[in-house]
Amino acid sequence: MTQEQCTHRNNVQSSEKPQVYKVGIYGWRKRCLYFFVLLLMILILINLALTIWILKVMNFTIDGMGNLRITEKGLKLEGDSEFLQPLYAKEIQSKPGRPLFLQSSRNVSVNIVNSNNQLLTQLVTGSNGFKARGKMFEVKSTTGKLLFSADEQEVVVGAERLRVMGAEGAVFSKSVETPHVRAEPFKELRLESPTRSLLMEAPKGIQILAEAGDIQAICRNELRLESKDGEISLDARRIRLMRLPEGKASTSSSSSGTRQTVYEVCVCPNGRLFLSQAGPGSTCQISNNVCL
């Protein structure tokens, strides 16, 4: 290449403007980016303010939130708490010296299940009443003495005194076994069967005692006192047998002109009692028309 050609090329290159390459976002894209960044910062500040407000209102601390505290022994709730879902806990107890209230708009149920999720014991308190389901039910005193127990075989009352406050007393559809029946002081004791018979049995004996009152046995048909191997003792200063029938003596044996005022008590072969006019000898044989 000649010298003239090189000089001409250099002049052409020098006459051209230098080319500049711009790096970045410019124009409307830059303005949109700044707007989105500003909007994001505003949202972050609002979210941070709401988070701080929620933490303040809910009383979040290191130990828990609100009335809920996390302790070494478990969870501690102060005040009223509402559970919208089932609660599973090993132990629920109140603060020392404070009562424990369980409240529900429908019922409160306590269920005990086994490993196979089969119901063993159930306690339900609702608007219809109180229901308990289980193999055995016991009530004990603070000293551990049994006061009441019930199972499928028997019901045991362990208290020293059983009081029935109803006006009609106690009603038993089956037999009653007890070693002692006693009324309260200055109260009368009544054993009554309005539509059926009343039967009292004992393998050794029955003792009816009234130390400060009377004993009355009233029935509609017949009253039977029976002793198979022993005797029946009526121990009193005066024994009165009211409205006994009077046997009629024959005309030959009756005394005429005098009014009979002395009688003797006679017993028929069937056990019926009657009165007979007393005489020098027994007049029961001649006045046995009542036994017929």
TrEMBL record:
List keywords of the entry alphabetically: Cell membrane, Cytoplasm, Cytoskeleton, Disulfide bond, Glycoprotein, Membrane, Signal-anchor, Transmembrane, Transmembrane helix
Q: Could you mention a single GO BP entry for this protein?
A: cardiac muscle tissue development
Transmembrane regions = 32-55
Q: How does it sit in the membrane?
A: Single-pass type II membrane protein
Taxonomic superkingdom: Eukaryota
Q: Please give an example of a GO cellular component term from this record.
A: sarcolemma
Where the protein is mainly located, per its record? membrane
Q: Glycoprotein as a keyword?
A: yes
Q: Where in the cell is it found?
A: Cell membrane, Sarcolemma; Cytoplasm, Cytoskeleton
The record's family statement is:
Belongs to the sarcoglycan beta/delta/gamma/zeta family.
- Name of the protein described by the UniProt record: Sarcoglycan, delta (dystrophin-associated glycoprotein)
Report the gene name: sgcd
